[in-house]
Write a structure and sequence with these properties.
Helix content is 41%, strand content 0%. It contains six helices and no strands. The protein starts with a helix and ends in a 16-residue tail after the last helix.
């Protein structure tokens, strides 16, 4: 079978098979955006939480426009972190809801969260969930 028949659209007699680069881009963009946001819900589907700590760019502009239009974009099969124990939450989601927290404080917390490689509160606390072990602040 010729290669063009594999990738051509169905209406032209092809199989409409996506090339690996397209699949990789789709999965990679969704995963990267989700990891960067630090949220536990898809950020283009749920545009309500404010994310002032994120750098302005195409994704944030798109998200702001979706919020203004009361719209959303649902990306099928996108990975996002699941909450493990009862009472767990996104660190950035909780911080963004604090009254009186400044954009600079959120940006600082965002950079710290990325450094220690955590998204949820449970990832940072001890197994019992009562305290944060000192070694967690060193990225371990």
């Amino acid at each position: 079978m010729k290669r063009i028949a594999v990738y051509a659209p169905l209406k032209y007699g092809g199989i409409n098979y996506l090339c690996i680069e397209t699949i990789h881009d789709q999965k990679g963009i969704g995963l990267t955006v989700q990891l960067e946001s630090g949220m536990t819900t898809p950020i283009l589907d749920n545009t309500t939480p404010r994310l002032p700590y994120m750098e302005p760019g195409h994704i944030m502009h798109l998200r702001d426009r979706l919020r203004e239009l009361d719209g959303s974009i649902v990306i099928e099969d996108i990975w996002y972190p699941t909450l493990q124990p009862e009472g767990d939450a996104s660190i950035m989601g909780m911080l963004a809801q604090l009254p009186g927290i400044s954009k600079r404080e959120l940006e600082h917390a965002y950079q710290c969260r990325k450094y220690i490689k955590v998204i949820t509160i449970a990832e940072m606390t001890s197994l019992c969930g009562r305290f944060i072990p000192p070694n967690r602040f060193n990225g371990r």
